[in-house]
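TASK: fixed-backbone design
INPUT:
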């Protein structure tokens, strides 16, 4: 019985003619006419002539003297930047200069005695009364 059921399940079923007769079809009549083709695309525009204005030094901007979009001319004041850090740096550099000038004056005052010390060490070096390193250090400080 199981064999009979398995064999009957494998037989293809025959389809009959489609019901209702022939299929309906539609018709279209063509005629020539103008057609405008358009395409909408996303995009972005940018000005063809732009200039970025940036300060050439670092600092805190205290005032901007121009309006965005306006024309500016060469040499025109554009920004006012806080001068305090630059004044502090200038004062520090002036102090370093004063220290260097004082050191120079001291070195120039001690130059004659340093020259005589080098001459004295040269004579002592020849008789091995002073070490080569002591002579080299004294002669090096003269340079």
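OUTPUT:
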């Amino acid at each position: 019985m199981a064999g009979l059921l398995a064999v009957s399940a494998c037989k293809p079923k025959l389809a009959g003619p489609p019901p209702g007769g022939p299929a309906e079809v539609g018709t279209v009549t063509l005629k020539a006419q103008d057609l405008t083709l358009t395409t909408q695309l996303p995009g972005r525009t940018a000005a063809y002539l732009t200039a970025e204005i940036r300060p050439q030094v670092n600092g805190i901007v205290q005032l901007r003297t121009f309006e965005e979009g306006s024309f500016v001319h060469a040499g025109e004041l554009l920004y006012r930047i806080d001068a305090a850090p630059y004044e502090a740096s200038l004062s520090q550099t002036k102090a370093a200069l004063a220290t260097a000038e004082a050191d120079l004056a001291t070195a120039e005052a001690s130059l004659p005695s340093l020259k005589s010390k080098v001459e004295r060490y040269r004579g002592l070096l020849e008789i091995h009364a002073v070490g080569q390193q002591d002579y080299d250090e004294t002669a090096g400080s003269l340079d």
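COMMENT: The mean pLDDT is 83.
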